[in-house]
Amino acid sequence: MNEHFETNPLIDRLPEHLKQFIKPQSYEDYTAINQAVWRYVMRKNVDYLSKVAHSSYLEGLQKTGISIESIPSMYGMNRILKEIGWTAVAVDGFIPPNAFMEFQAYNVLVIASDIRQLENIEYTPAPDIIHEGAGHAPIIANPEYAEYLRRFGEIGCKAISSAHDYEIYEAIRELSILEEAEGTPESELIRIRSKVEDLQAKSTEPSEMALIRNLHWWTVEYGLIGTVENPKIYGAGLLSSIGESEWCMTDKVEKLPYSIDAAYQGFDITKPQPQLYVTKDFAELSMVLEEFANKMALRTGGLSGIKKLIHSKALGTIELSTGLQVSGVFTNVIEDEGKPVYIQTSGKTALAYREKELVNHGTEYHSEGFGSPIGRLKNINLTIEDMSPRDLQAYNIYEGKHIELEFEGDIKVSGEIITGSRNLQGEIIIISFKNCTVTHNATILFQPEWGTYDMAIGKKIVSAFSGPADINSFDMITHVPTTKTIKATKSTEREALENLYEKVRTYREQHSTEDLEVILSDLIQNHPQDWLLTLEIVELAKQNNLTVYNKALDHLLKVKANRPEIAHLVANGLNLL
Fold first, then answer.
1. 136 is in an annotated binding site
2. How far is CA 222 from CA 217, 225, 261, in A?
3. Where in the sequence is the domain holding 501, given as residue range(s)?
4. Full-model pTM
5. Same structural domain for residues 508 and 452?
6. Are residues 427 and 521 in the same domain?
7. Is 366 annotated as a binding residue?
8. Are residues 525 and 455 located together in one domain of the fold?
9. Mean pLDDT for the chain?
10. Which pLDDT tens digit goes with each residue over 296-318?
11. Annotated binding-site residue? 131
């Protein structure tokens, strides 16, 4: 990262592949219009959510130092968040799901620091500081929920993705950017919406990442808590949307008891949700998460685990029963009677034990890939990993000996043993050969001219997961989003309007002597369709018993009548007064 951002011990310990997504917040880029949008949403939300949100929400606003009046600064939030063991970083819109969840595993809250346009004040498909700062941050002040979020990140970042998942991520990221950007041609919106719909409708076997993202959506983003008859809101997507937080409490939205079934319920990020899930309490969230994790290749391993990694076409890891971990892009598995008997990676591969790369087994040494038999020797009840030194000698598995090993599934290894490596329990985890040939029936898998053959030892695959065992083994600066968020354009008219918003904000904060009637006249003459600033003038005039009140209110009601699409927003703002 060349750009400067505020750091702290929690951020310092992040691996470099996560730091690549962090950007400075650039607080000075927020305009007075941005601040007014924040203030309107927060005033409306706090007024409404005090009645329907989980009790942790209002307590969390105070604990995390999030103000109703001003967009929070990351630096100020972090001074308070550190007291509950968390921190926050700014990013540019959506980041890849694995990275998002890995941040959570490090107790780091990811905040898209941009803010929605006034035109999208009720809802935006783009992540923004209202969604993240006013939605996620307050609830993590609840210790039980914070631990669920951390644990979700820890498990979620190990979920195996598919190439289809990343395609959907890129499309949704582009959609969120174009929907939020000013002046996007309708043809472009139609194109990207159609692309997202087509990808979501595509019939594919859902990956682990797709399933766990569903759980994340129906809990962290759109979760309800309590009873089906009387739910409360805790999901950040609902807490940050003044439209959906009211909509979700109506009978038009079906309420379902939360269970692992939510993992198989997809969602459409561009539309209000037709159903929501209600958890009894935060403890139930963790129970369902563990139930899901028990079905993941992370815990089941086996043939299905290695097949998931092959299908993902991405960097992943298998762990054998000896604890040896093989990390790389898996491209092939030979199976026999429903079990893997040989695994193969292509390209850079690293071997590790307990998440630490083994000496002389990094990507430079295994630069062309790695292959090894897995399982038991044929017609021998004792597996190599379970053999004592005396057993190994009896079976001729000994340094300097030429040996032929035949594994179940017709995998044969023939060569001279150079040496072996053991784990902390004394089990052999690697045997190295010279002059070695490896075959599967008539197919040659390794031949002597290729050099030293390193054979992994393990009777079964106990785990398979996304990413490397040792993050230092690979250059992880990959999957950087190809799109950037689009900043609002600065026209002369826009700057003049921002100037008026700034004057009114100064009036409120510093009890300025600025004449509100002059500002209102300018607004009516040059920006007659703007409603939010007129509402703020009405508020200040009423509070200070100013004569401009009637003129401002009359104009606001005219705008409301002329713009039926924002009539409810004006009505809600007046009700707050």
1. yes
2. 6, 10, 15
3. 492-576
4. 0.86
5. no
6. no
7. no
8. no
9. 90
10. 999 999 999 999 999 999 999 99
11. yes
